[in-house]
Automatic annotation (TrEMBL):
One record GO biological process: small GTPase-mediated signal transduction
Species, as recorded: Metarhizium album (strain ARSEF 1941)
Keyword Nucleotide-binding: yes
Presence of the UniProt keyword Nucleotide-binding in the record: yes
This protein's name: RacA
Disordered, as annotated region: 80-105
Amino acid sequence: MVDGKPISLGLWDTAGQEDYDRLRPLSYPQTDVFLLCFSLINPASFDNIRSKWYPEIDHHAPNIPIILVGTKLDLKEEYDRRDDAEKNGDKHAFDNASKEVRELKEKKRQRPIEFREGLACAREIGAYKYLVCSALTQSNLKGVFDEAIR
């Protein structure tokens, strides 16, 4: 229920592999809203919003609303905590970090996507909203789907 009304929500996770590039747009015409998602700790995922996903959606379904969603908020928060600890002198701040956080740290000149960057991208592509969430902790997950329904 959203705003006191029962809702039926159908989700389609369209494959990102090149093999599906010609098939994927066939699912677009019956779409009411796109949840265009990227990982907050994967800069390449964020770059793909502008270079691949938005151009494809804009071409095949130009008038359908988009909500831009940054995912893996829990890992971004972990990275930020550990990075702050390291800046404050903790040389072992990343020693027992999760695999994805360690991998991001090991890639020189790469860092998580900041909220302001996601918001700027949302404005650039004309997204209706920009939201962040974590499926693992459920942080703002309901908010993402509630916004899509509205």
